[in-house]
Amino acid sequence: MRQPPARDIRPTPGPRGGQIAPFYAMEVLKAANRRQAEGHDVLHLELGEPGGPPPPQAVAAAAAALAVESVRLGYTEALGSLSLRRRIAQHYRDSYGVAVDPARIAITTGSSAGFLLGFLAAFGDGARIGVSEPGYPAYRNIIAALGMTPVAVPTSHETRFQVTPALLTAAGSLDGLVIASPANPTGTMLTATEIAAIARWCAANGVRLVSDEVYHGITFGTAAATALAAAPDAIVVNSFSKYYAMTGWRVGWMIVPPDLVGAVERLSQNLYISAPTLSQIAAEAALDSTAFLNAKVAGYGRVRAQLLDILPQAGFDRLAPADGAFYIFADVSALTEDSTAFCARMLTETGVATTPGIDFDPARGKRFMRFAIAGPADHMVEAARRLRAWRR
Ligand SMILES: Cc1ncc(COP(=O)(O)O)c(C=O)c1O
After folding, report:
1. Could you tell me which residues come within 8 angstroms of residue 329 by beta carbon, excluding any fewer than 6 positions away?
2. pTM above the 0.90 mark?
3. Same-domain status, 122 and 226
């Protein structure tokens, strides 16, 4: 099937906040919670949240900080605690063999704040920023809320739902581009060679590259490559939410190109002052919790293998080739013409909550849905078994 052309998805003029699209996964969560409150049992495969606790070392570091009698936990510098920034620089040396000056590292309130700061620092009003479709909905919603223009670049199974230089050339003029590997909702990855080709295309076309690396660490074959290796001037956004399992601690980081460090620092000072201090302390300890965290990833891998076996038996046999993250993105066009109604019926009839594709692809999302599989292993497998029974 041929892909539709790229298109601008900027909302009509007017107060932008009121026009922002909902995050449908949160709407599904509301419906699922309502069912649960009514006494039905619900298996949650709608939200992209890691299962289980954060690393004990992180919790212990936070508890130790709170136990100090004179603890104040005041603001840190706007770019974050220097010891955490140095520890992250070491992480880049150890994990990727890339040298990063800690002065270029900004600690943020989750990667969500990183996107806001990065877009504001790098782009002006109306800037055209390419985003893969399907893709994480907050990219386009943040870009639009900032008065910039998200440009949807439709991708398909053919390119593993990732952008390519050819698709970007077809998208028309761009000022910026967001890539993600592993990606949400598909879990598909870009190889180092593919990232380098995209980085070369960006350099040749004056396009600033923004790389979302929040799912690094959660991979089931090859380790994810950082865009920094190929594009030293890229904005790289990362987080303690996913691999480090610290969603609610609201802490992430950004590698900022030297020309944007001042802008990011001034924006942080004004928008947030600083990321939560207690979370920064815990995050530093989380970076030393590799054994605990890799065991968690192995658990996601086991669930993924079981679901990749059971879901096709339930008719979900057109799945994106996920190599990372904790999602399974399914083309359900053979089962329904409207995945939103299908997911709603699935919730009512089986108690399995999932996310319809329109969250990630407003144009073609009715054909797709996403299973988020990072919850408790027994719940995930039970969900797949229920779907198999439901579809028989
Ligand atoms: C691809 C992607 N990027 C960024 C985020 C934002 O995460 P946080 O703000 O918790 O770092 C998410 C959350 O689901 C995501 O899936």
Report:
1. 134, 161, 185, 186, 187, 319, 320, 322, 357, 360, 368, 369, 370, 371
2. yes
3. yes
